[in-house]
Amino acid sequence: MSEITPESFTQRIAQITADIAGRPVDSTLQDYLNEHFPADGELFRQIERDCLQAEADGWMCQHEHGGIRYGRVIKPGEATHGFSVDVVRMRDVQGPHHRHPNGEIDMVMPTDGEAEFDGQPAGWKVYAAGSAHHPTVSKGEALVLYLLPDGAIEFTRG
Fold it and tell me: Potential cystine with 104: which of 17, 53, 115, 127 (Cβ 3.0-4.6 Å)?
C-alpha cells in the first residue's frame, strides 16, 4: 500500500472538488455525485482506503468527544476549490446539532454492518445552504467525510 500524506490526500479530494466547484449544493448535486463518483467506484474506494490509512497513521480523526472521533483534514483553499474537508468516525451515535450556511456534502463510508448516516448508506448525502441537523450514524459504524463550501459550519443548540 502506498503511503498517504495530507498532500496526496488533498490531490485525491481535488479530483472531486474540481468537478463540483460552482455547482449548486442541493439534491441535484447528491444525484450527480452518486452517479459520477459512486460508492462502488474506484475513486470513492480509494478515498475510503486513504481515510483508513490516514486514521491508522494518526493524522486523521485525531480528536475525540462524546464517542465521536473527528478532525479537519484540509482547510478551505485553492487546492480544494474553496472546500474544507473534515472526517469523522461515528458508531450508533447522534452528533452535535449544526447549521450549514453554504451547504454540506457528505461522503458516507460504512466501516461495519450496514451503517447509515442520516439514513444514507454508502454514497453521498447533500444538505443545501441554510439547512441544519444532528448528524446521526445508525446500524453500525461509519467514516463520514464532510466537504464544506468555504469551511462554513455553525454549531447550534437545536
Answer: 127
